[in-house]
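Thread: Newbie trying to understand structure tokens

Hi all, I'm a second-year student working on a class project, and my supervisor (Dr. K.) asked me to get a predicted structure for one chain before our next meeting. I've only ever worked with sequences, so writing a 3D structure as a token string is new to me. If someone could post the tokens and maybe explain what I'm looking at, I'd be very grateful. Here's the chain:
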Amino acid sequence: MTGSRTISSSLGRETIERIATRAGFEVHWEDANKRTHRVKSETLATLLAALGLPCGTADEAKQTLAMLDAEHAAQTLPPLVTAECHRATALPAAACRAGDAYRIELESGGIVEGRLGVPKGESALLAPVAEPGYHMLEIGERRVCLAVAPPRCYTVDDACLAPRASADGKPTRRSNADAPRAASIWGIGAQLYGLRRAGDGGIGDFTALASFARHSAQAGADAVAISPTHAMFSADPRKFSPYAPSSRLFLNVAHIDPSAVLGMQAVEAALDAVATTGTGSPRERWAALEALPLIDWPDALGLRLAVLRALYERFCAHERTAAAPLAREFDTFCSQGGRALEDHARFEAIDAIERASQGVGHWRDWPAALTDPRRPEVEAFAREHRHEVDFHLFLQWLAAKGMTDAQSAARAAGMAIGLVADLAVGCDGAGSHAWSYPDDMLRSVSVGAPPDLFNQAGQAWGLTTFSPRAMRMQGFGAFIDMLRASFAHGGGLRIDHVLGLQRLWLVPEGASAADGAYLRYPMSDLLRLIALESMRHRAIVIGEDLGTVPEGFRERLARHGLLGISVLWFERSEDGGSFKPPAQYSRAALATTTTHDLPTVAGWWSGNDIVWRDRIGQTAPRADGRDPVALANAERAADRHALWRTFQHAGVAAPGVSAPPKDHAPVDEALAFVASTPAPLALYPLEDLLGLPDQPNLPGSIDEHPNWRRRLTAPVDALFDGGVLSDRLLAVSSRRAPVARPRQGPPSKPSRTP
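---
Reply by user tm_fold:
Sure, no problem. This is what the structure looks like when written as tokens:
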């Protein structure tokens, strides 16, 4: 920050703030306590440079302002214009005139023609278009994409009324008369990596997920929400947080079941072919890793990749040379994946070589000729290392088959929704996504959150994401690619930190998380594109809307059919002294007991989260000298009694009985309470269904807490074989409005591609 402080001092604050405002930054922002803050000039200057808008000197500032003015006044249309069905679309006044003739080539092949209307003093208006899709708009010599969205996303009601297979395998549709007034279904939230099955080698895989989905459906669930499955760094297994991926376009190869495609016999032969390292044979190591209570990511992933590489060599020797059906399927997958898939495989290959030979951990530090995926040197690398690049294509093929099979299993078992994928808010700037889309991503900044009631120092997550300016200039292509990849393998999508659709808190690299600024995003365009892709993929959308929420934000989500999230711990009265009754929960939000970043019911009730935060140094001393841990425990004790009273008033806890002690959490009551809400979808985290005390992730920690490493103690099949899980699933299922449907039969096959 020293350099930016020196540079920006040559300009007045007013000039920098003017440029920042034009670029979409909020110069002033309001914190959770309603206090207004003014962003430092140094911070704005650094962030502007990250957007390609330098203003370090007077000349740079002048040129940047001139460029922004020229873009605003340009007599051209952007590459993509979004619209909504049955609503007139405003076009830039500078680019269009009243009476201009236009022609729309509809995606379906139809033609719409007309002339622009321009009400006095307003932008040019394009007449309403009834058909959603990506159409081609032609005005004079200009041709742009017109993305016409439906009024809302695909919803839970849509999913419950959609055709599904009956017992005889024929598609059926429930009549509106038979359907509940509003769907009221439930699902389970599971950490994919934590699922167990015999032979998994120490990491939860897609085969375990398919089994979990079948069992969940048979218990009455209509959805399984899973942790992110984004592609990580195969050359660096120490990076395993699912919310800090290498790419949001592809899948985590750690979740591949090596036996799913080529068979267990081939896996056993591959284990025998793997070179022995350390103590024990590869088979012994595989079994030992499987028995661990915590995932040993470096060892487990290293051994899995060695097995997969041996399988790949077998595949090349036997399947590809014989042009077998699997080989043809693989070739088709690679062809359909196109440039983006090839780029990812090339990145993985280069990354592995650079880490092994040079110890380089970021693509910016590679040889300059390899830092741009479009350079001829990268093409030459791919030719020279074709076998290695194809290995990473092979891994993505296996991963995609695994995810597809898991969703098919869920739908075949009768789920209305099936898998709900999780879209991380950003990606690691050192990863494949940032390398493959260099013109679309922000550089030298971190996405995060400003100081709030729960994180007084603010947060910097070490992630990057799309530049809103690049989005507009490049027709939202990278964003659409990401949406399609996210919707490809499931019936729903959870968008982490959905607040980023309106604005994101950006922190310059190396700066304090508090020294950031909000950057606005084109929310209307993004919501329309999400709705369009949601309907095309017939998948619901959930937005994680926790934190400092701008006024009116949740209402906008609801209008577009995105569900918010109502978490038990946060649903309080305005004074914070009591908890809301079930009837006051939003009908436009999913209801749940907790999230992966928050305490479980057992952990919250016992104060386990307070113990953990104090243990790893997250308890800040108080200025008044009082013991912060004692105060936190006293506050929790009051909250326990308040929550218990709310349970009693809701009829899920016995009246006239005192709150249970700390070591006897009312898990059943909490689950029943959430089940009693009017939310269209109730989601029960598996940790709460099992009464576990530990949460999957403790924000603000890395190695101090075993984040993203905990495994279930029993295999999936055993979990559902009677016992506490079966009892709790039966109880919560009986409290949700019944949605009659067959539970067996072949899966429906909704289109997954536009």
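A couple of things are worth pointing out once you decode it. The chain is about 40% helix and 15% strand. The two ends are 45 Å apart (CA to CA). Feel free to ask follow-ups in this thread.
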